[in-house]
Amino acid sequence: MTESAINTENLTKTYGRNRGLTGLDLRVERGEVYGFLGPNGAGKSTTIRLLLDLIRPTSGHVRVLGVDPRTDGVRLRRRIGYLAGDFVVDGRQTGRDLLTYLGNLRGGVPRSRIDELAARLDLDLSRRIKGLSKGNRQKIGVVQAFMHSPELLILDEPTSGLDPFLQHEFVTMVREARAAGQTVFMSSHVMSEVQQTADRVGIIREGRLITVERVEELRERAVRQVEIVFEAPVEAAEFASLPNVGDVTVTGNTLRCRLDGRADALVKAAGRHTVLSLRAEEPDLEELFFDYYSDSHDRTEVQHAAA
Fold it and tell me: Which residues form the ABC transporter domain (predicted)?
């Protein structure tokens, strides 16, 4: 049986009296896209740094692509594409100089591959990095992670600073990586990005893995604010008693409500009228965590979904 791409057992990291991770058991299967989600300070970046042996655990075990990062880190990192959440490089270089240098460290990356990725992200490689905006520096980070077609991509907040069009292109790149058999481990705050790419998600809070779920299950739990504009006025009472619907208000021809779960009943009720427009706002993941995974909803054990 093929070993998982990432496997941790009782992984713990403390910083003096401060907690980083507490007994993290994580399994990411080869060829899947795994979203690693949680509020700021939950332990996402700490986990990633432990996987790459950038920091050492206080206790517990880590295996990445079948090897121990501590004893075989150099060869392992050649098989990995990594984008840090705080991507920082020497600003005196041009984008092409930096990417060529990094490609040579990995044994060489064809110039055509670098050019292809840069074109997809609308990135000018001739400019010095210090003169680039945050979004354009982030594009360089994305290119250097993907350019050598690694077995495993580890991406920490990869679309930070990218505009919506380029976020969509990034989603396409992740899907292509999965289709090619690559594994993607990605932390993110962007709900739509995770929903469009991930097979499973692990949710971490205060250094503990709260739950592991398939994306479809997470989507059903997300609370969305919905606005529907009808051709003619409707009665709020018609919608207030629907399953998963709350906080219903009607102003003129516009209905606003909160949707907590499946949208089937709301869509069918709206379908009895002429709908001019419908808008559903996805919550920021941090907001979702503080709401849905508040202490009153906490879980005593991790729920492992099938791979």
Answer: 6-231
* Assigned domain for 302 exists: no
Are residue 118 and residue 243 in the same domain, yes or no? no
Considering the domain architecture, whether residues 86 and 230 belong to the same structural domain is answered as no
Q: What distances in angstroms separate CA 101 from CA 72, 77, 85, 129, 149, one per listed residue?
A: 23, 16, 21, 14, 16
- Say if residue 210 is in the same domain as residue 228: no
Report which residue type is found at 127.
R
Whole-angstrom CA distances from 92 to 118, 202, 298 are 19, 38, 48
Q: Which domain holds residue 159?
A: 6-219
Confirm whether 37 is domain-assigned: yes
CB 257 within 8 A of CB 237: no
Distance between CA atoms of 193 and 271, rounded to whole angstroms?
Answer: 28
* Beta strands per DSSP E along 157-295: 183-187, 200-205, 208-214, 223-230, 245-251, 254-260, 275-281
Percent of the chain with pLDDT over 90: 61
C-alpha–C-alpha distance, residues 137 and 131, integer Å: 9
Same domain, yes or no: 207 and 185: yes
Average pLDDT, the chain: 87
Strand, helix or coil at 70?
Answer: coil
- If one counts the domains in the chain, the total is 2
Chain-centroid distance of CA 34 in Å reads: 8
Concatenated DSSP letters for 93-146? SBHHHHHHHHHHHTT---HHHHHHHHHHTT--TTSBGGGS-HHHHHHHHHHHHH
